[in-house]
Design a protein that fits this description.
The structure is a homotetramer of 148-residue chains. Chain A is globular, with a radius of gyration of 15 Å. Chain A is of the alpha+beta class and 148 residues long. Chain A has three helices and six strands, in the order H-H-E-E-H-E-E-E-E. Chain A is 20% helix and 39% strand. In chain A, strands 1-2-4-5-6-3 form a six-stranded antiparallel β-sheet.
């Protein structure tokens, strides 16, 4: 994957995003997602599969995993865009590989391909070193509404 | 789709699930998902895209939609299974069709195919009558660990 | 789905495509795909699951179904675009619902959403009235390289 | 990915499959797919994007890529199954990352997770060293109808 051509990487944006995820709001806050590192084309995030996020049967709710995947997938691109541009996830697909009953989750999002108007991102979630979820999806990159 | 062969429908399970979703816990509770109706092969659920579930840019967080989809996709099958069986979502894919800025969401999950060991389900989410998300995924059906 | 806003429909393009698929070349020709009708946002195509397209075990090769899906998914948009624009499939997902052992296949591709730059399409393949494959995917719409 | 637990690897099955793909029939034959190597949890296959497989616009038909992906995805598991078992692809998703205008394609299918009843496989297709297609899908593993 070393041959993916990425745009310029904006370290200031990356730093701000990692810092903001010390205490995020909304769904990322509810899930407790933290950004561990955000480098060119690669975002590592973590969260805890705390009791409240399990189903009555004791397994992590699939929607929690899906939300974790969506969030990392949607954020990895930001430092690669020009100021004013924004990226929106248009689709993704995930496979749940194993049930998770608690403990730390680690998601790694990687940009597989990046064009002028879209990018494809892969997300892998691991738990105690084992792959528990594999996903890939597409982001559409938009220019600011008024580019003046 | 009228030719999908479904197993026997368990009305008591369906009633219990709809009632439990008057005040669900965990992620479904955080999202505020309510089950409006659960009939043979079809589940209708609703939730409100309240302010806390929007991103800082004012659009519904994709992970909220993904969690809503996962939850309805995973629950539609329960009244169709034999007592003791359980179903686990193994994969799904979704396309986000339009941004949502607030208001009521309605998900309809329908069983497209049902076999002895797996089922395929489609989920459509609408907002003010417009389709905003389309998804489809697979559930694996398991027999109880000790069937004695 | 009645609320999908589609662009202007170009009947001449549609007619030309249906006619060309009386004897297509390349993969569509090998598969024997025929276009039965192409109207605004909806394409119906057929093909025969002839013996050569089955696996040694006697079931239709999944790649045949995938090729059939890809082709109808990618063609439904043409009559809806402005002259000079073109559409490229960027991703799709499919679920195989039943094995097919021969006979006629019918694919129906429908546009679920259409924006300025992308469209989402659903494809359903039926065999003797039963749904055998369900797919959905995304097309990116491009303007001609030199729009002068 | 080094922690995926795979079943016993059957070298005789693998050898037979590689040899059979010197001159396969059906769709794999039409596409010209060759198996370069088939080891535990990993299949490498190649094909040529010959002129006949391009669209009138000169790009590889997406259905060709989808067929190539489906075939490698569906074959990687065979040497890992017990004699008599068989595996059927139930779903997959792919993202097309770049257009291909000719030349050699190389697909690598890898087993991401393998359970008693299902397996998840990733396929990456490269062209001149660049990733041109990324896919992932699910296989259901079946025991022989009469296991007597």
């Amino acid at each position: 994957m070393s041959d993916v051509e990425l745009g310029a990487f904006d370290q200031a944006i990356a730093d701000a995003m990692v810092q903001a995820h010390g205490a995020p709001g909304g769904l990322p806050g509810y899930l407790g997602i933290r950004f561990e590192s955000l480098t060119a084309g690669r975002l590592v995030a973590t969260m805890e599969a705390r009791r409240e996020l399990l189903t009555p049967l004791g397994a992590l709710h699939g929607g929690v995993m899906a939300g974790f995947v969506d969030h990392t997938l949607g954020c990895v691109l930001y430092p690669l865009m020009k100021r004013g541009q924004w990226a929106a996830t248009t689709e993704f697909k995930l496979n749940y590989l194993r049930a998770v009953q608690g403990g730390a989750l680690r998601a790694e999002a990687r940009v597989l391909a990046m064009g002028r108007r879209s990018a494809v991102v892969r997300v892998e979630v691991t738990h105690e070193g084992a792959l528990v979820c594999a996903a890939q999806g597409t982001l559409l990159v938009s220019d600011p509404p008024s580019s003046g």
